[in-house]
Amino acid sequence: MEIQLLNEKHAEAYWQLRLEMLQQSPSSFGSSYEEAIARTNPIEVTAERLAQNGSYTFGCFDDGKLVGAVTLVREGALKMKHKASIFAMYVAPDHRGKGFARGLLQAAITQAKAEDGIEQVMITVVTTNETAKGLYHSCGFKPYGTEKRALKYNDEYFDEELMVLFL
């Protein structure tokens, strides 16, 4: 397992993983596969996002193949610069249970701690995803609320647990 900060050179591999995550876990992400494949120039847009200031996407590689990723985004507004959020946490199903997700999450937390002024990291998780909730709790995240009906997919609602890690 190798974890590294992704950049624009990883755009195509990340885009393919992004499509996989939206197909494999549609209830876990705010975006949908249908929306993703309808985008214009997705590789170029992905490359721009991977190079964006204040946004850090870490990838986990197994034998040179990107099998997991997580993104940390720092808030830009003056009154919210003390916060960052974690998005798009995913590990391919055949690589789960092997420490990949924990490694990715730790990389994002380490990056947040290295950034001047970040005091807390936010994350959300669908309340039925016990595995992810267990990981986040074990890394120090604490729940502070639940957003009812946070997501709606195929006429089914999904609540999200809101969590914070104070650095």
Kindly report the spatial arrangement of strands forming the biggest sheet.
1-2-3-4-5-7-6
Structural class: alpha+beta
**Tally of helical segments:** 5
CATH topology: Aminopeptidase
Secondary-structure element pattern, one letter each: EHHHEEEHEHEE
CATH architecture label: 3-Layer(aba) Sandwich
Average pLDDT score: 94
In the CATH scheme, the class would be Alpha Beta
Which spans of ≥5 residues are poorly predicted at pLDDT below 50? none
Major sheet summary line: 7 strands, mixed
- Please indicate the percent range of residues in DSSP E strands (runs of 2 or more): 35-45%
Which homologous superfamily in CATH is the superfamily? Gcn5-related N-acetyltransferase (GNAT)
Structure summarized in a few sentences:
This protein is α+β, with helices and mostly antiparallel strands and 167 residues long. It has five helices and seven strands; from the N terminus they run βαααβββαβαββ.
Would you mind describing this structure in some detail?
There is one protein chain. This protein has 5 helices and 7 strands. It has 167 residues and is α+β, with helices and mostly antiparallel strands. The protein has one domain: 3-Layer(aba) Sandwich (Aminopeptidase). The chain has a 7-stranded mixed sheet, sandwiched between helices. The model has no long low-confidence stretch (mean pLDDT 94).
